[in-house]
Design a protein that fits this description.
about 325 residues, alpha+beta, seven-stranded mixed beta sheet, 9 helices, about 25% helix, about 25% strand, elongated
Length: about 325
């Protein structure tokens, strides 16, 4: 600033002004990394594929559970954060880094959360992130490093357990026989968590026709031919006060056990259509959501989705 003041060459302060400007520039240079080091840092920290978004380092660390941005800034200033072996400093909090990078903080590697994770929800756990009444909820289900970046795909009733992604639709009117089995119906589900809002939307919206496969134990012996015809022709139910036709496909029926497939998941839809076909549900088990299978997931366990399930999610996201 001083160097930019218009001072005439003959003025008494002329030489003093130039000297102060020179010292000021030298001091700033002394505490700044060399151009080569700055360039190396930029190339190293911002390197990533074209489809990986860049985010500010302080936001990335805060999202991975290290506290507020102010807390994160202190860690960076104290030299406790490094990426690819480069220890970051005072001014690096605002630096853009690839979203999927894995910074090391105090020796702990902070890997990015998975695209999808599966949780075998026990009975009694409410599908909310926290509960004002102190009831069991999803707030402590995910690992701490995932909590700020992942959300449940749809919701489940507290009296259901274990692979589900049902849309959070308005409570629809149900016929009397369907309502009467509500408390008696035992349901096992797997609740999915996603870190991508677009993927969540495509998994839930009927437009994308994501298949869900169920196995149910029902009242009354099943006539496979008759039930299959009803499901394929469409079963009338009530949605938002209006008649809504739901189509399904019967995969197997034996005695009181049926296996069926539908392409949407509105509120208690499977129970409603089976009750309207004369077979109120006693137990219900979701086997598959898209290409994600329940498998041998233990109750209360959370695992990242990998293999074919992850490939399916990526293809749905790219469609």
């Amino acid at each position: 600033r001083t160097a930019c003041r218009p001072v005439a060459p003959g003025h008494l302060c002329y030489s003093h002004t130039l000297q102060n400007a020179f010292v000021s520039v030298q001091q700033r240079r002394r505490f700044r990394p060399s151009a080569a080091v700055r360039q190396l840092r930029t190339i190293s920290l911002c390197m990533g594929s074209a489809d990986v978004p860049l985010v500010r380092l302080d936001k990335l660390l805060a999202d991975r559970g290290l506290g507020s941005r102010k807390d994160v800034d202190k860690l960076i200033r104290n030299g406790l954060v490094e990426i690819d072996g480069i220890i970051l400093g005072k001014a690096d909090g605002k630096r853009k880094v690839p979203w999927d990078c894995a910074p090391t903080v105090s020796g702990q590697v902070l890997a990015p959360p998975p695209l999808l994770a599966a949780y075998h929800k026990p009975v009694g756990v409410h599908s909310t992130i926290g509960d004002s009444r102190g009831r069991p909820s999803l707030i402590h289900v995910l690992p701490e490093l995932w909590r700020k970046q992942m959300h449940p795909v749809g919701r489940l009733d507290a009296d259901t357990s274990g692979l589900v992604c049902e849309t959070c639709a308005c409570v629809a009117s149900m016929p009397l026989d369907s309502r009467s089995v509500r408390s008696a119906c035992a349901v096992t589900w797997q609740l999915l968590f996603s870190r991508d809002g677009i993927l969540t939307h495509r998994m839930l919206h009927p437009k994308y026709e994501v298949e869900r496969e169920y196995e149910a134990t029902v009242k009354n012996t099943v006539d496979a031919h008759a039930l299959g015809e009803k499901l394929s022709s469409g079963v009338a139910t009530i949605e938002d006060g209006e008649t809504y036709i739901v189509f399904g496909k019967l995969l197997h029926a034996e005695g009181n056990t049926v296996r069926l497939q539908v392409a949407e998941g509105k509120y208690r839809m499977v129970r409603r259509i089976l009750a309207n076909c004369g077979h109120p549900v006693l137990t219900l088990h979701r086997l598959r959501y898209g290409s994600v299978w329940l498998g041998d997931l233990e109750e209360g366990e959370v695992v990242p989705i990998e293999g074919p399930g992850l490939d399916w999610a990526k293809s749905l996201l790219a469609s």
